[in-house]
Predict the structure.
Amino acid sequence: MAPAIAHFLVGASLLLVLVAPLALRYGIDREHAIWLIPLGGLWGLAPDVHHVTPLFESRLYAFHNSPWADLFALHYTLDRGAIRALYLESVFASIALFIVAVAIFWGTGRLRPDALSVRSGRDRILAWSVTTAVATGYATVALGVAVSVQEGFRSVSALVGSDSVLVGGLALLPIGVVLGLLSGPVLEVLGGTRRVRPSVTTVCGGAFGAGGWIVGVGIGVPLWLGTVSGSALSVPFVHWGSLVALLVYGATFGATYGVVRGAFQSAEASRSLEGDRRSARLRTGSQ
């Protein structure tokens, strides 16, 4: 297994990064944010509770050794043999990740509203680009977890003629990026307040994931494998695990998109409101 400190720091880092967009959008009080660190650390360590609990030890140990432990800050992935062999490297990498996560969380709190204001078409493109990039990152990680709990990395690696878990994990990166580049414009064209409402963008993202499954998996995978390896899969190809994974990707992308895009919209609205207040004060003073 990976060192306990690595699990703790990865859990704390992921929770800080997860909360950062919410804090940016909704102006969450950061005074008590330091509690996110121990909470995230305990989240990452939770599957190791079988070491200290006097109850259900065998069941908890079985859960610890299952891919479902990845729901706790990628615990199962960190305990894979390839990472266990890199003991010191995993410790220093987790420390570096924690420093980056703290910097991200701190940085979002230091952003001035004017930095997020959308004043022109160029600003709108920048807002869309940043939002799409952030949402793609979050959704790709969620996609990896969804594939991991189904032990599906080898199936993904088969798309490139491999049987390696590592290759399957790496293959998800370009898949996630391509899906993000396609999803971003779809959500942006919702326009108005719809694209900044997480409830709406989550549903739309999930629908996009379902559509991606129909086209990409149901039709694209058989054609791709038939061309690359000569495999004869029927069209449509039905693989329910990939549907779940793409729904998770789409919903995560949509939720993140709505939250982050709304931060730009909120900043613009705040700036407009402040301008109205100044105008009102000037009119009052002139009278």
Notes: The longest helix spans residues 240-286. Residues 119-287 form one domain. Confidence is low (pLDDT under 50) at residues 267-277. The CA atoms of residues 154 and 165 lie 5 Å apart.
